[in-house]
Specification:
This protein is an alpha/beta fold. It has helices at about 5, 15-20, 45-55, 75-95, 105-115, 130-135, 145-150, 155-160, 175-180, 190-205, 220-225, 235-250, 275-280; strands spanning about 35-40, 60-65, 100, 120-125, 140-145, 165-170, 210, 230-235, 265, 285-290. It is about 45% helix and about 15% strand. The structure holds D-glutamic acid (DGL). D-glutamic acid binds next to α5.
Length: about 290
């Protein structure tokens, strides 16, 4: 059994560390100074976390990579839902004031259940079909996403709601998230996989490609190179960060503290992810191992 003080990487979360050490003392910090929780099956959600940091520089952030149970994209909705519930409980133990589900697969399969179980705001991410339909010139949009996202009823509803007269072509991308986890952004294997997934969409005439998985923005430069300059690439990470800001602000949950917020990282996978997370986050981070 891991003790509470062990559960928080101290260097990263000073505000929380003080609260943990004050055992038996009533928590003085108002909920709005509590951290914001963010999770994904792996490092992909860092593509969203970076936008959140830009949008909300003073917030403390806790990021969880569920790499020990990834990928989510080829698992059953039940499996992903159970993981999402577990990760949310973990984040709530760290007193998060809201949870960002920085994973399309977990959002489409689990966000309704999370909202029904837990009393904090949840902000999710779904493939950017709507902005893609607004951006396309020829009315043909291609979506790259996990198989599970594409199968989900939420995704089908999304298309049904917004796709009036336009065409949405979809492509599941098994194996692609693993390449991002390995930081293999431009290797021959990644190129071959992307070629296999991108080419059919381009051949069907798509002039706009939706990055429907939070891992794929890290492959955007390669996608741009392979698809050509004329193709629009839609990443919804920035829009999600604006939504996070609106959701916190509407509930009076924006932090009142001055100065830059901290960021703490946790993983259910190998601690070697520290190198990858540090590189994607842009500064050296310590990664805690989840129980
Ligand atoms: N990053 C995740 C998403 O946005 C899923 C990757 C995976 O675990 O398959 O869907």
């Amino acid at each position: 059994m891991i003790s509470k003080s062990e559960m928080i990487p101290k260097r990263e979360m000073n505000g929380l560390e003080m609260m943990e050490e004050g055992k038996g003392v009533t928590m003085k910090t108002a909920a709005n100074d509590n951290p914001l929780g963010v999770f994904d099956s792996g490092v992909g959600g860092v593509s969203v976390l970076r936008w959140i940091r830009r949008q909300l520089p003073r917030e403390d952030l806790i990021y969880v990579s569920d790499a020990g149970y990834a990928p989510y994209g080829n698992r059953s909705p039940h499996y992903v839902e159970e993981r999402a519930v577990y990760l949310t409980r973990f984040l709530l133990e760290h007193r998060v004031k809201a949870v960002v589900v920085a994973c399309n697969t977990a959002t489409v399969t689990s966000i309704a259940r999370l909202r029904s179980l837990f009393p904090v705001p949840f902000i999710g991410i779904e493939p950017g079909v709507k902005p893609a339909l607004a951006a396309t010139a020829n009315g043909i949009v291609g979506v790259l996403a996990t198989t599970e996202t594409l199968k989900s009823s939420s995704f089908h509803n999304l298309i049904h709601r917004f796709c009036k007269g336009a065409r949405v072509e979809v492509q599941g991308c098994p194996g692609l998230m693993e390449q991002v986890e390995a930081m293999a952004f431009t290797t021959p294997k990644t190129r071959a996989l992307l070629d296999r997934y991108l080419t059919p969409l381009l051949e069907k005439g798509a002039d706009t490609i939706v990055l429907g998985c939070t891992h794929y923005p890290f492959l955007a430069p390669l996608i741009r190179e392979m698809a050509g300059e004329g193709i629009r690439i839609i990443d919804t990470g920035e829009a999600v960060s604006r939504q996070v800001c609106r959701a916190l602000s509407a509930r009076g949950l924006l932090t009142s503290r001055e100065g830059p917020g901290a960021a703490a990282f946790w993983t259910s996978g190998s601690p070697t992810v520290e190198t990858v997370l540090s590189s994607l986050w842009g500064e050296s981070v310590t990664v805690g191992r989840m129980p």
